[in-house]
Structure formats: C-alpha cells, structure tokens
Design a protein that fits this description.
Blueprint (H helix, E strand, L loop, with lengths): L4 E4 L2 E9 L16 H29 L2 H13 L6 H11 L3 H10 L1 H4 L6 H21 L14 E5 L4 H5 L6 E6 L7 H9 L3 E3 L4 H4 L5 E5 L4 E4 L3 H22 L15 E6 L5 H6 L5 E5 L13 H15 L3 E5 L27 H6 L1 H14 L4 E6 L5 H21 L8 E6 L2 H5 L1 H4 L5 E4 L1 H9 L17 H16 L3 E4 L7 H9 L4 E4 L4 H10 L2 H11 L5 H19 L5
Parallel strand pairs: 2-3, 3-4, 4-5, 8-9, 8-15, 9-10, 10-11, 11-12, 12-13, 13-14, 14-15
Antiparallel strand pairs: 1-5, 2-6, 6-7
Helix pairs in contact: 1-2, 1-3, 1-6, 3-4, 4-6, 12-14, 14-15, 20-21, 20-22
Bound molecules: phosphoenolpyruvate and magnesium ion.
Length: about 575
C-alpha cells in the first residue's frame, strides 16, 4: 500500500484522473549577433505576459480562496523579477547567443546545483515554484495555451507528479475529491492549497502516477498518508465509515471556537498561533487563537532580492498587531541561518550552518539590520500589544547585548521624535541546551520564555532536524528533553515569569499532555491545529498529567516514556482524536 506524507486531512474515495503535464518541446539553437536584441525583447515580452497571468490568478485566489493562499503568487511575481532568473537568462542570450527558450532552461536548470548544500524542505519546495514559473514563461514564448483543470465532467481524485498552485487554483472544488502526488512535503504548495481548499491530499508518494491506471478506484487517506489502489469492497466500506467519523470529528471541533482552552480540573492554558506573516492571522483568530505566540519574521526577508525596509516591516507587523489586538503578538527577531537562507544576503557558507552564525548571532553581527527590525517592532507596538523574542539564545551575554542594542534603538527613536512603545516585554527562546540549563539565571533578565522544542531536541540529542537519515533518533519524548523542560519551567516559575512552548511538540496531542504536566503556561501552534489542541487540553486532567510526568522524569529511555504514556493516556488521546486518526 503506497504511503506518503499526509498533507491535507480527510478521506477521499473515487476514480483516479491522471494528470499529465505536456512536455514542452524546446529547441536549442544559436542566434546571430544581430538577432540578440530581438531575442531579448521576445523573452521580456513572455515575462510580462506571465506577470499578467500570475496577477490574474493572484486576484482570483485572493477573492475565492483567501489572502493567505494568494500570497503564494506574490512569490511567483518575485521570481518573475528575480535577477538570478531574468537577468541570468538575458546574459545567457547575450553571451552564449542562445535562443530565449534554451537560455531560460539552462538558467533555471542550474539552480539546484547552485543550492545543492541546502537541505531545507522549504527551500527545495521553492525550487518547484521557480520551475513552475519558468514553465509558464516557456509556454508564453512558445505561444502555447496553459493547461486548465476547470472543466472536469465528473468527480475525480487527481493523481499527478506534482500540482503547481496555478493548477490547483483552476480546479472545480466540487469535482475534485482528493489529490495524490509523486513529490512534495507538508510545506509544498499542493499541500498548502489542499488544506486551504479542504481537499484530502497525500503527497510525496514517489511513483503513484506509475502505479495507478486512469479511471481505477483509489482511496486517499489524508490523515494517515496512505493510498489504496483498487480497494476491495470491504476496504471501501471501512473507509466510508472512517470518512463519516472524520466529518463528525471536524464538525465537533467547530463548536470549540469560542470555548476556553481549560483542562477538566480548571487549569487554563493560553493557546496562541505560530505565524509566518499577516496572511495567516485571519484563520488563527477565526479558530479562537488567543494571540500570536510566535511570529517567524524571517519569511519577510526571504523570496526577494533586497532587505525589507523599516517602513515595510512596520506595515507587516502593524497589520498583524492590529488584527490580533487586544491579544498580544510575540515578534521573534530574525532567525536566519540554519536551513533558512537568503540568496542575496552576505552570509558566509558554513560547514555546519545550524551551529554557525544563525539567528541572534547573525543579528548581533549585523547590527544595522537588527536595529532596523527592532525600530519597526517598537513602532508597531503602538498599535496593540507586542512582545519581542530573541531566537537561539545560548548565553547570558547575548541577551544583555541584544537588550543594549534595543535601548540604543529606543534612544534613537526618541531623538527622532518617532512614536513607539517603550514598554514591550522581552523574552527568549529556550532552544539551546545551555539556555535550558542556565534558565534560572536567564529568567532574572527577561519577562518570559518560549520553548523552541524543534531546535532544543536537535541540539540536545545532536540530531539534525532536517536530515532524514537520522530522523529515527529525533525523539521529542527523550527523557533528557523532559528533564530539561522541567528545569526550565521550575526555574522560570521560581523567578515569577511564564513559559510557553512554540515548537512542533506543542501541536502533538501526546506532547501536549507532557507539556501540560510539566507546567507550561502557554502553547503556540500552527493555525490549523488550534481547534484540535484545544480539544485535547479540554479533555485532559491537569493533576493527572502532573502525576504521569513525575513518573516519566525517572525513566531512562524514550521507549519507556512512550510505553508508560501510552498505558496511562494513550487510549484517552485516541478517543479524543476519534475520527481524526
Ligand atoms: C523551534 O525551534 O522549536 C521553533 C519554534 O523555531 P523554528 O522552528 O523556527 O526554528
Ligand atoms: Mg528554533
């Protein structure tokens, strides 16, 4: 049974429609010197035509699906202006005297080689965007019409190598029951669009297009990542039942929107959202988020050829702060490096980027870039409630140095007569073991902590979070992680500050039961997980989770932790998630 990545929840049962991308026939030939200008003009015209088409799609998505999804097409527009692609192709036409189609193909095909060292799933996905954009320019150069999925006759499940956003956008939502694709991960655009359209999807199935015959029946289980080809009548009945249960479960979550995230025995947890930009706020607030617990600002710096100005940042932060008010927004300062890079940014290549000049280290090195961001944050704080959070703190000096720069920025803003808030809370991410061990000392210098479990696990267990070869060693329930978090929470509470958790552990039901038992005060999760996590919190008993955790803290292996947790709470969690398993 093919297994891929569960990208969009739900179950689809139906006929497979194999989507073939037409292979564009690109000829490569040399042009004469006097033809160079004409060829460049032809290329520029195709780029302009592509921009027009993408803008149209962007407007359509914005109106019919949502602003957040339309944002994907903004990155397409950025690619259509990217010097690496556009100027690179023009240079190739000039220097190699190649026809425009061949020059464009040679330019974008060289990208993966240039960025080979980057392991990030996110960056890899963005290469697919470049390919999709290049494909569109090529179609315009060849004057071929673009393919559309808007005239489907019957209800089907789309099986494809990959679906570009421009494919998904044109689909008729009533006709498409599900997606199954060969490539892609949870952050791929097929996944993002499928979730926005609420269509079940499994991606990254490797060779599903080869295994499925057109018109055959398949089942796509977007909850488990499984796809069943030619199911037996019994399997169909079983999945129909699963589907029914899932729909009831989804409906039951809707009722939780306005209810508080409070345990059975009355412990109230703050439940906030992790966002990467203003576009994600609406969904989070609609589902009842009590603020933003992590605003990953680095995405404002990515997918572009220059740094965002103070005014541009102010506008983005202000948009979020105003929408979220009266709740607060925790704005994390730039967390570049690791697996998040900018093509135009002067960051030296490192052998070990996760342990290199990343996050706060980079900000403290590039003080002017840091100051610009802090100015924008302090100014945006005038429009609501803002807290500042420093990422990847590994030593007390870093906090002090960052705070000194923050004080300088305040003085500068005062001198310039610009209005800003002087009273934002300052917090640090606890995601490096040294910070977790020194939590008692750090707690005296800041207003709050937020546990970045994604990195805390990676650095504590020495397991690269993006390397699938060691994925089995990445153990959120490793006893060491529990002990470190226990130390952090106790130290923070002794000093009278609160502790949140914003890593993926906070979006995992078992992880939530452990974090609650350890005494964490706030959880910040992906907007799409708010309701599910709220449901988990509301059905747990805080006292019971504390008792469980006190036993877990004496165990020696992840296996023992998992086994004990499962025996005490596994059944309950499975029941809570009934239909969603
Ligand atoms: C983390 O490390 O847990 C975290 C939330 O930050 P990021 O995933 O952005 O590194
Ligand atoms: Mg982190």
């Amino acid at each position: 049974m093919p297994k891929g990545v569960a990208a969009s929840p739900g179950i689809a049962i139906g006929k497979a429609y194999i989507l073939e991308k037409e292979n564009l026939c690109i000829l490569e030939y040399k042009i004469k010197q006097e033809e160079v200008e004409r060829e460049i003009k032809r290329f520029k015209k195709a780029v302009e035509e592509s921009k027009k088409q993408v803008l149209e799609i962007k407007d359509k998505v914005s109106k019919e699906i949502g602003k957040q999804e339309a944002y994907i097409f903004q990155s397409y527009l950025n690619i259509l202006e990217d010097p690496l692609l556009i100027d690179g192709t023009i240079e190739k036409i000039k220097n190699s005297r190649l026809n425009a189609e061949a020059a464009l193909r040679a330019t974008y095909k060289s990208f993966p080689e240039k960025f080979k060292a980057i392991q990030s799933e996110f960056i890899k996905e963005r290469f697919r965007d470049v390919e999709d954009v290049a494909q569109r320019i090529l179609q315009n150069l060849l004057e071929q019409p673009t393919m559309s999925l808007s005239h489907l006759e019957e209800k089907i499940i789309i099986v494809a190598y990959d679906l570009a956003p421009s494919d998904t956008v044109s689909i008729d939502k009533d006709k498409v029951l599900g997606f199954a694709t060969d490539v892609g991960g949870r952050t791929s655009h097929t996944a993002i669009m499928a979730r926005a359209l609420e269509i079940p999807a499994v991606v990254g199935l490797r060779d599903i297009t080869k295994k499925v015959k057109p018109g055959s029946t398949i089942i796509v289980d977007g909850n488990s990542g499984k796809v069943i080809i030619n199911p037996t009548p019994r399997q169909i009945e079983r999945y129909k039942d699963k589907k029914r249960k899932f729909l009831i479960y989804k409906k039951s979550l809707e009722n939780l929107k306005s209810l508080p995230p409070k345990t059975i025995d009355g412990r109230e947890i703050e439940l906030a959202a992790n966002i990467a930009g203003p576009e994600e706020v609406d969904l989070a607030m609609r589902d009842g988020a009590e603020g933003v617990g992590l605003y990953r600002t680095e995405y404002l710096y990515m997918n572009r050829s220059s740094l965002p100005s103070e005014e541009e940042q102010l506008e983005a932060y202000r948009a979020v702060v105003e929408k979220v008010a009266p709740y607060s927004v925790i704005i994390r300062t730039l967390d570049l490096g690791g697996d998040k890079f900018l093509s135009h940014f002067p960051v030296p290549r490192e052998i070990n980027p996760f342990m290199g000049c990343r996050a706060i280290r980079l900000s403290l090195e590039l003080v002017e870039v840091f100051k610009t961001q802090l100015r924008a944050i302090l100014r945006a704080a005038m429009y609501g409630k803002v807290k500042v959070m420093y990422p990847m703190i590994s030593a007390l000096e870093e906090v002090r140095k960052a705070n000194r720069i923050l004080s300088e920025v305040k003085e500068e803003l005062k001198r310039e007569g610009l209005s800003f808030s002087d009273s934002v809370d300052i917090g640090v991410m606890i995601e490096v073991p040294s910070a977790a061990v020194m939590a008692d000392i750090l707690a005296r210098e800041v207003d709050f902590f937020s546990l970045g479990t994604n990195d805390l696990i990676q650095y504590t267990l020495a397991v690269d979070r993006v390397n699938e070869k060691v994925a089995h060693l990445y153990q959120p329930l490793h006893p060491t992680i529990l002990r470190l978090i226990d130390n952090v929470v106790k130290a923070a509470h002794r000093e009278g500050i609160w502790v949140g958790a914003c890593g993926e552990m906070a979006s995992d039901p078992l992880g939530v039961s452990v974090l609650l038992g350890l005494g964490v005060d706030e959880l910040s999760v992906a907007p799409t997980s708010i309701l599910e996590i709220k449901k988990v919190i509301r059905e747990l008993n805080w006292e019971e989770t504390q008792k469980i955790v006190s036993h877990l803290l004496n165990l020696g292996t992840s296996k023992q932790v998992k086994r004990y947790l499962d025996s005490r709470i596994g059944k309950k969690i499975r029941k809570i998630l009934q239909g969603g398993e």
